């Protein structure tokens, strides 16, 4: 891929109770030049209406699910949404799919078994419903899911990964597939408070085996996972500091092979307000 896209990953877009506020934030991001907005599809049935509300309220910016859980929505439900979005806004909607996590799936009363096979079956269902592989992307971490994202999707959307994973993912999916990692950042030059903000975010993800098992492949250990993450792990996962220092951290992912980086500006755990100042500053530095 030859593109170098700067995008946004922000929980605000699903968490906000106001569609108007979400669309206003999306419109500003579009005006600032961001390529795409990513946010979680949640854990309900069907694709959340907010994705369509943002598509309808903007004119150019892409919108992607990051991700729709393959345990919570069926291929026909997801395909219906994707086809409708494509008819209304050609080329702007990207369907991100993921296998989620055992604690979430089993908490809803479903056995979390054979997630790779479940994804293969799900993609078969989307094929049957006419959803092109080029209009979907997979939340891939390990080698098998990365290969699947190469062979049966437009590429991979890894989440909560260091730049070393981005390099591995590029090697796995080849040069012609989209690689769009999420990268969380903290715009704060003070090491103590920046890392504290980062740990509000990392502590939840480090309780999920999908992420810790992936990090183990790069040499991280239980000692690194304790108490929200060692300083070394936090620094590897979460670029923090001045705008210039954060931009340098994001550059590591582009240099490792990312076509697109989906930036999540950490907001101190407040998902219901939009960190507009952070995205304005990053746009000035990156776009």
TrEMBL record:
Residues 17-259 form the Luciferase-like domain. It comes from the Bacteria. One of its GO terms (cellular component) is cytosol. InterPro entries: Bact_Lucif_Oxidored (IPR050766), Lucif-like_OxRdatse_MSMEG_4141 (IPR019922), Luciferase-like_dom (IPR011251), Luciferase-like_sf (IPR036661). GO terms for molecular function: oxidoreductase activity, acting on paired donors, with incorporation or reduction of molecular oxygen. NCBIfam families: F420_MSMEG_4141. PANTHER family: CONSERVED PROTEIN, LUCIFERASE-LIKE MONOOXYGENASE. This is Putative F420-dependent oxidoreductase.
